[in-house]
Specification:
Helix content is 17%, strand content 28%. The protein is an alpha+beta fold.
Amino acid sequence: MTRGKEDGNGPTAVTGRTGPLTWKDTSDGTKEADAAWVSRERWDIIKAEYSSSIAPEVCAEVMSRSNTREEMMHKKDLYLGAGAREYWLCHEDGKLEFFDSSGQLQGSKMCPRFPKAIRKQ
């Protein structure tokens, strides 16, 4: 991963791409996260693939009334199992939950300054 300078609180910049990305290597078929971030190194691997062979480093899903927690936790397991380093779940009220392969996190390890809640403008 390409990172900017460090300031004692983690990297001040992480270089990569954001957007919806699709890949095929989950145990439940092809999945596409609502939002994702992929490093330049991983992008170089998947940019020419029709269906990505590895998940983006960060996969984010937005919880809606039509989703169940069980469904969103299943997606978490699929994304992390396909190589994602973190899974972010955004609730309708803007609160975020962060997960990695070890379980639930207090905040993002990859983007430690990312807020734990977002609000509508």
